[in-house]
């Protein structure tokens, strides 16, 4: 349209009709599947162009398959010990990654532990984000005394190293896998709460919020329908980083021996077992869970970075 | 300015009270039975439990106990440890200097390595060196300190005998420093994660500074690139890092807990972990208050340093 208007394109002279027609034809190299210029589509396109984020997503999917589908293919017994089994053997003789001091096959244990690590990590992050969103949006929206009280609570809890709180809670309650999700969620909600409060403070002044207020909309409706959906970008980015942090926290607890109790296990507890054999040089007990933890956390960090870049694109488009 | 300082100190004291309240409540969430048994032993008779309660004043209402505890804290009387059978102040006086050595060395090492790395990555941005270092930072950021610690022990201490695998259990700080080789691995482990995040921040901060208008002016004036980099851009880029050091204090201190467990370093982290495992209330409260003081002081000093370093910032009390 613009070319036809001013009649001079990149050629610097008036374009002939067939040239104009050519410009408007879709050329193969311009044909992107995600065509269209909507803000979400632009964000999705930015995400897919961000190679690291895609790599992260692929790694996460592969790891999920490995942990949940793997045991269906590679059968090992992870719950019942058999004293006839060889213990602490290096890889070989039918055990692809060797055996651990209880006689369990290490590769199977890796998959079994991965199930716990990933389940608890992802679910705890969802719980933490949910609590944080509720507390943050209420504090930011209502302001005043509510805000002051809630933020003082958040500040106080932030002054204690999170790991300490977690250790105290774990030692007292001896949580199983599902209680551990609640425990980590109840400790990790502080950062999303602060973020969402900041976003709410910004969004509260927007015209559409004021319009809904004038029309008589109740506070709950405003928060649920207007503020939270518009803050969803920041929330989603933070949620991915929360998953990475939750997996690391669970692994730390497992390493210290206060995490998930046997026969359930997670990568951190496997490392704790491996650490007692480090001076015997039992590398097959240490490297596999270590590599798994690092890969998964790095993958989630990549995805979070990619989401953050995509979010910036979306903001620019506004 | 003075007003701001006073209000921040008042807030800090409020946070400390809040922290002691949180720890107190967490501790008393468990049943008195379980508490007594974990301290005296599983086979304690009811009479022994009864006398334990009376001795420690657990029969009184909760607010009475809390008031007593705060009273003691304010007079800097930290009580007596059940586990170690020593006054808690002695324990802290012994262990705090060692943890300070560890945390101090780790922070200094992290800064000394991360800042030049960040500047180097800015100069070589988007080249292979930059990508390689970025990937390394991601990996180290994702690696939990117990993973890195055990890997370092496995390769440097066990396989190659370069450093001792554990730190000598030295009662005094002089003896701890007598074998400096033993300090290398714990310090490197603790500083690795901080190094990774500092270098990422330094890189993005320097890139922002280099894109600023004053750099363009300096270039137009013909100032040499090295001077622009190290004198003009650097001074502006270093400001967020100063705040970051203060804010990173709680996480470095928390990381010290795990690192001390890995290397058996006789400091506050190991003390905390053992005290939590054995339900030693006095020690837990004292240690948590010390950590909270460190966190709050860290963020306060960071804010003050920021206002000193950047004359554009003037604090008004809110």
Structural class of chain A: mainly alpha
Distance between termini of chain A? 23 Å
Distance between the termini of chain B: 11 Å
How much strand content do the residues of chain A show? under 5%
**Do you know the CATH architecture of the largest domain in chain B?**
Orthogonal Bundle
CATH class of the largest domain in chain B: Mainly Alpha
TL;DR of this structure?
The complex is a heterodimer of chains A (318) and B (318). Chain A has 318 residues and is mostly helical.
Task: Give your account of this protein's structure.
The complex is a heterodimer of chains A (318) and B (318). Chain A is an all-alpha fold and 318 residues long. Helix content of chain A is 71%, strand content 0%. Chain A is built from 15 helices and no strands. In chain A, α8 packs antiparallel against α9 (177-188), α9 (177-188) packs across α13 (232-256) and α14 (267-275) runs antiparallel to α15 (283-317). Chain B is built from 13 helices and no strands. Chain B is globular. Chain B has 318 residues and is mainly α. Chain B folds into two domains: 2-74, no CATH class; 88-309, MetI-like (MetI-like fold, Orthogonal Bundle).
Provide the descriptors you would attach to this structure in a database record.
heterodimer, A: 318 residues, mainly alpha, 15 helices, disordered N terminus, B: 318 residues, MetI-like fold, 13 helices, 0% strand, globular
What's the helix and strand layout?
The complex is a heterodimer of chains A (318) and B (318).
Chain A: H1 2-6, H2 17-24, H3 39-49, H4 51-68, H5 70-73, H6 106-142, H7 144-159, H8 162-173, H9 177-188, H10 190-204, H11 207-214, H12 219-230, H13 232-256, H14 267-275, H15 283-317
Chain B: H1 2-27, H2 32-40, H3 46-56, H4 62-74, H5 88-123, H6 128-142, H7 145-159, H8 173-176, H9 180-210, H10 213-221, H11 225-263, H12 268-277, H13 281-309
């Amino acid at each position: 349209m613009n070319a036809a208007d001013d009649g001079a394109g990149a050629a610097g002279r008036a374009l002939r009709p067939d040239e104009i027609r050519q410009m408007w034809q879709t050329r193969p190299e311009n044909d992107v599947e995600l065509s269209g210029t909507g803000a979400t589509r632009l964000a999705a396109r930015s995400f897919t162009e961000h190679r690291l984020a895609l790599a992260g997503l692929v790694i996460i999917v592969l790891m999920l398959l490995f942990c949940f589908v793997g045991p269906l293919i590679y059968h090992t017994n992870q719950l019942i010990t058999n004293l006839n089994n060889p213990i602490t053997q290096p890889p070989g003789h039918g055990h692809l990654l060797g055996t651990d001091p209880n006689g369990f096959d290490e590769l199977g244990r890796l998959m079994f532990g991965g199930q716990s690590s990933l389940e608890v990590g992802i679910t705890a992050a969802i719980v933490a984000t949910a609590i944080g969103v509720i507390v943050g949006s209420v504090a930011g929206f209502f302001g005043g005394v509510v805000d002051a009280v809630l933020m003082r609570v958040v500040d106080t809890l932030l002054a204690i190293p999170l790991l300490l709180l977690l250790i105290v809670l774990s030692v007292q309650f001896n949580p199983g896998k599902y209680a551990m999700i609640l425990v980590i969620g109840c400790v990790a909600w502080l950062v999303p709460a602060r973020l969402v409060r900041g976003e709410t403070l910004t969004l509260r002044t927007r015209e559409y919020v004021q319009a809904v207020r004038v029309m008589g909309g109740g506070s709950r409706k405003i928060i649920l329908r207007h503020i939270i959906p518009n803050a969803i970008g920041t929330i989603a980015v933070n949620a991915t980083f929360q998953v990475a942090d939750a997996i690391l926290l669970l692994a730390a607890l497992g390493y210290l021996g206060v995490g998930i109790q046997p026969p359930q296990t997670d990568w951190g507890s496997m490392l704790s077992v491996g650490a007692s054999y480090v001076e015997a040089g039992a590398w097959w007990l240490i490297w596999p869970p270590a590599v798994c933890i690092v890969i998964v956390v790095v993958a989630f960090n990549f995805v979070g970075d990619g989401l953050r870049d995509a979010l910036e694109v979306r903001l620019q488009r506004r | 300015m003075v007003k701001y300082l006073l209000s921040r100190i008042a807030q800090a004291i409020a946070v400390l009270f809040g922290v002691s309240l949180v720890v107190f409540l967490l501790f008393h969430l468990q049943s008195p039975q379980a508490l007594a048994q974990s301290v005296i032993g599983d086979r304690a008779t009811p009479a022994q439990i009864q006398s334990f309660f009376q001795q420690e004043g657990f029969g009184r209402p909760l607010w009475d106990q809390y008031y007593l505890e705060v009273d003691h804290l304010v007079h800097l009387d930290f009580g007596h440890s059940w586990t170690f059978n020593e006054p808690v102040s002695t324990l802290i006086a012994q262990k705090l200097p060692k943890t300070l050595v560890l945390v101090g060395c780790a922070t200094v090492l992290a800064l000394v390595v991360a800042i030049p790395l960040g500047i180097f990555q800015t100069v070589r941005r988007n080249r292979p060196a930059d990508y390689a270092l970025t990937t390394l930072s991601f990996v180290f950021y994702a690696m939990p300190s117990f993973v890195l610690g055990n890997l370092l022990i496995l390769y440097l201490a066990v396989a190659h005998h370069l450093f001792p695998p554990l730190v000598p259990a030295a009662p005094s700080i002089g003896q701890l420093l007598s074998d400096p080789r033993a300090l290398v691995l714990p310090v490197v482990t603790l500083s690795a994660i901080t190094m990774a995040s500092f270098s990422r921040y330094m890189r993005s901060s320097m890139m922002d500074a280099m894109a600023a208008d004053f750099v363009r002016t300096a270039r137009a004036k013909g100032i040499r690139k090295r001077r622009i980099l190290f004198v003009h851009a650097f001074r502006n880029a270093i400001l967020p890092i100063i705040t970051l050091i203060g804010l990173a204090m709680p996480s470095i201190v928390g990381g010290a807990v795990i690192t001390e467990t890995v290397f058996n370093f006789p400091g506050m982290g190991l003390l905390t972990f053992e005290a939590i495992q054995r339900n030693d209330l006095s020690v837990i409260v004292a240690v948590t208050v010390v950590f909270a003081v460190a966190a709050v002081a860290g963020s306060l000093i960071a804010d003050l340093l920021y206002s000193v370093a950047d004359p554009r910032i003037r604090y008004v009390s809110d």
